[in-house]
């Protein structure tokens, strides 16, 4: 059964940290709900038990350029096109919001996925303290 992606769905502060933990990322509980208030918009999906199973967002200044961030799909729901649907929904919302350029950083192993979602691969760099 296809899970609908919803822009700015109602999310409790613990839900994204729970999903981050479920996919093997650090929880970063201190980031929520501030992240939801500061990003341009976010999207997600729930399973039949109303558990958050997909999440991602676009951040930025709300001008020409945005950043696609934290695409999370619960392990139980991978390989069901949910990630592709999530990214495409976020990109459609970016177009609607007149964000003309969306940048996303990812590891080489995820390059094909992002190309399939419509992103063009390019060189870039990342700084991390």
Account of the protein in words:
The protein is α+β, with helices and mostly antiparallel strands and 129 residues long. It has a single domain (6-117), classed as Aminopeptidase (3-Layer(aba) Sandwich), CATH 3.40.630.30. The chain has helices at 15-22, 34-38, 82-96, 111-116, and strands at 6-7, 41-46, 52-60, 65-73, 101-103. The mean pLDDT is 92.
Q: Oligomeric form of this entry? A: single chain
Query: What fraction, in percent, of the residue positions are helical?
Result: 25-40%
Tally of alpha and pi helices: 4
Q: What is the strand arrangement across the widest sheet? A: 1-2-3-4-5
Please name the CATH architecture: 3-Layer(aba) Sandwich
Count of distinct structural domains: 1
CATH topology: Aminopeptidase
* Largest sheet report: 5 strands, mixed
Strand portion, in percent?
Answer: 15-25%
Q: Which spans of ≥5 residues are poorly predicted at pLDDT below 50?
A: none
Please, what is the average pLDDT? 92
GO molecular function: acyltransferase activity, transferring groups other than amino-acyl groups
Organism: Paenibacillus nuruki
Pfam family, one: Acetyltransf_1
Domain N-acetyltransferase: 5-129
Give me the secondary-structure topology:
Blueprint: E1 6-7, H1 15-22, H2 34-38, E2 41-46, E3 52-60, E4 65-73, H3 82-96, E5 101-103, H4 111-116
Parallel strand pairs: 4-5
Antiparallel strand pairs: 1-2, 2-3, 3-4
Protein name: N-acetyltransferase domain-containing protein
GO molecular function: acyltransferase activity, transferring groups other than amino-acyl groups
Organism: Paenibacillus nuruki
């Amino acid at each position: 059964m296809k899970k609908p992606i919803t822009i700015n769905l109602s999310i409790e502060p613990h839900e994204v940290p729970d999903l981050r933990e479920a996919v093997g990322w650090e929880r970063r509980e201190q980031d929520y709900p501030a992240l939801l208030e500061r990003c341009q918009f976010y999207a997600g999906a729930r399973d039949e038990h109303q558990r958050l199973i997909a999440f991602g967002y676009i951040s930025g200044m709300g001008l020409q350029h945005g950043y696609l961030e934290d695409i999370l799909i619960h392990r139980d729901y991978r390989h069901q096109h949910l990630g592709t649907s999530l990214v495409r929904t976020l990109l459609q919302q970016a177009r609607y919001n007149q964000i003309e350029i969306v940048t996303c950083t990812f590891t080489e192993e995820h390059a094909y996925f992002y190309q399939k979602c419509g992103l063009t691969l390019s060189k870039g760099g990342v700084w991390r303290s």
